[in-house]
């Protein structure tokens, strides 16, 4: 029997198979650190994207088109992030890119996306200046400069802190920016700094710095660090017999902190838009779906990636896909800023970043921070 294409598509449509069989692929690049120390964040981020895309596709995709993730490992390294961005944009011809994991890599790779007029959407980049790189840069990660002041003030009040010691990584864009924000917040709150110490990426022994901090006798320790270094610092502090609480940033919000520091991390205060304790329906559904799929607890980074995929989907629903790549990329860029979303991380909107040096900027996250405290090996809301 001969059957016309028109007739075939009619049959498939009526059988409800059209989206699976006939729809176009919407190629979404995912450039995250899937190996190396930053994989602690990157793998959770990839899982969040996968969960959201699978759910969206199972419900018929985006206007009948399928979200097709092109996933690449940028290893948490600047050079690799640049390579992966070029591959995704010019070889795979993706519609847009999610990533990279670290702000440090975003400063290297995002200019490539902006030059090619491709949306680059960070779900974990919290340093100042990310979106100043150009009008194609978006993020739903909340800046350290929005979160750390709220977190620091809450910790000062909770523990009655008068003086702190500070430790930070001085060769990473995120940890350096976090230090600047902590410093200006501490100055504004008139909190004395007893001692400031630094370390470099990959350091594992912090005894020299921590011995000096111990001698300066602070009420608390402020730490602008990525998770692995933070966990080792906390652990070694306890080994030295110090009991002070820690105040940390976005980098702390990972189950990995507790895998290394265990309940030594108790009384660590950290701010984030996401909390496992937030009992909003969208968050409960996300947590249950994540556990069912990956047999592990989600973290902030998975939640932000999950929400980001929904944010992009909301924009894509407003776009007519023409098949002409430049046009479709531009249409997505135009549709994104108006998206509002209420997901695992709560209510979200974009906020236009200020132009810098006469250069048009992209969009930051407009979202409130929740202050958490570690108790018994997990973060709970600080009330
Ligand atoms: C940044 C961060 C890190 C904690 C990445 C996961 O926030 O580099 O901006």
Descriptive notes:
- With 383 residues, the chain is an alpha/beta fold.
- Helices cover 43% and strands 20% of the residues.
- The chain has helices spanning 5-14, 18-21, 39-58, 78-91, 103-115, 144-159, 173-188, 207-216, 227-239, 256-261, 281-294, 300-316, 325-335, and strands at 25-32, 66-73, 96-98, 119-122, 137-139, 163-169, 192-199, 220-224, 246-248, 269-272, 340-343, 346-352, 363-366, 370-375, 378-381.
- The strands form three sheets. Strands 7-6-8-9-10-14-15 form a seven-stranded mixed beta sheet, with helices on both faces.
- α6 (144-159) crosses α7.
- The longest helix has 20 residues, at 39-58.
- The chain is globular and about 65 Å long.
- The termini are far apart.
- Residues 41, 101-103, 124-127, 174, 226, 250-251 line the site of (3S)-3-methyl-2-oxopentanoic acid (1QQ).
């Amino acid at each position: 029997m001969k059957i016309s294409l028109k007739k075939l598509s009619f049959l498939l449509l009526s059988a409800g198979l059209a989206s699976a069989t006939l729809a176009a692929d919407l190629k979404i690049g995912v450039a995250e650190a899937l190996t190396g120390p930053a994989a602690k964040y990157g793998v959770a981020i990839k899982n969040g994207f996968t969960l959201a895309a699978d759910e969206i596709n199972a419900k018929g995709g985006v206007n009948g088109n399928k979200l097709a993730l092109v996933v690449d490992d940028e290893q948490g390294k600047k050079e690799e992030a640049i390579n992966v961005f070029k591959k995704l944009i010019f070889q795979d011809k993706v519609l847009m890119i999610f990533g990279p994991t670290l702000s440090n890599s975003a400063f290297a790779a995002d200019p490539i996306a902006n030059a090619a007029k491709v949306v680059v959407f960070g779900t974990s980049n919290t340093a100042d200046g990310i979106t100043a790189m150009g009008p194609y840069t978006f993020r739903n990660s909340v800046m350290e400069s929005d979160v750390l002041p709220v977190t620091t003030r809450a910790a000062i009040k909770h523990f009655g802190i008068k003086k702190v010691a500070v430790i930070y990584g001085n060769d990473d864009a995120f940890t350096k920016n976090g230090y600047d924000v902590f410093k200006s917040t501490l100055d504004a709150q008139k909190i004395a700094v007893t001692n400031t110490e630094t370390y470099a990426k990959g350091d594992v022994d912090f005894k020299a710095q921590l011995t000096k901090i111990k001698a300066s006798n602070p009420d608390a320790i402020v730490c602008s660090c990525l998770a692995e270094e933070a966990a080792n610092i906390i652990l070694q502090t306890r080994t030295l017999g110090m009991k002070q609480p820690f105040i940390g940033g976005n980098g702390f919000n990972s189950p990995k902190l507790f895998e290394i520091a265990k309940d030594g991390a108790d009384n660590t205060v950290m701010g984030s838009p996401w909390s496992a304790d937030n009992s909003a329906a969208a968050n409960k559904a996300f947590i249950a779906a994540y556990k069912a799929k990956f047999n592990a607890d989600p973290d902030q980074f998975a939640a932000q990636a999950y929400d980001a995929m929904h944010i992009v989907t909301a924009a894509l629903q407003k776009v007519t896909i023409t098949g002409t790549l430049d046009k479709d990329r531009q249409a997505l860029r135009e549709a994104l800023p108006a998206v509002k979303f209420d997901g695992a991380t709560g209510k979200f909107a974009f906020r236009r970043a200020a132009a810098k040096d006469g250069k048009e900027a992209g969009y930051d996250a407009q979202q409130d921070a929740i202050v958490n405290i570690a108790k018994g090996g997990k973060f709970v809301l600080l009330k």
